[in-house]
Amino acid sequence: MEVQLTPGQKAFARQAIETGRLQREEDAVKEALSLWEERERTRAEILSAVDEAEVSPARGEGRTMTQESMRELAEQVKQRGRARLAAEKTAPR
């Protein structure tokens, strides 16, 4: 696969390489994809939780949601996603 970076993206990656944060431009792309993947997993989990919350009252399982409980749910989903990503990064390939 060939990826064309914008001049700004190339400069950003070069700066990370020069400071020792990354070794190659490819590492920047891999890290960006990893972060995107984490964000998409979190998004999917939130959407799934919302879908479940929408149908649960019909099954008599509803509960009152507040701003605080939504923040707590979002934080739980983020933590699970981060834990899953960390586990994948440390798993042997």
| Number of structural units classed as domains | 1
Q: In percent terms, what proportion of residues is strand? A: under 5%
How far apart, in Å, are the first and last alpha carbons?
20 Å
Major pleated sheet: none
Question: How many β-strand stretches?
Answer: 0
Share in helix? over 70%
What count of helical segments does DSSP give? 3
The low-pLDDT segments are none
What is the averaged pLDDT score? 90
Order of helices and strands: HHH
Described by the principal axes of the CA atoms, the overall outline is elongated
Please state the structural category. Answer: mainly alpha
Radius of gyration: 19 Å
Structural write-up:
- By secondary structure, the chain is mostly helical.
- It has one domain.
- It is built from 3 helices and no strands.
- The protein has helices at 7-18, 25-55, 67-90.
- Helix 2 crosses helix 3 (67-90).
- The longest helix is centred in the middle third of the chain and has 31 residues, at 25-55.
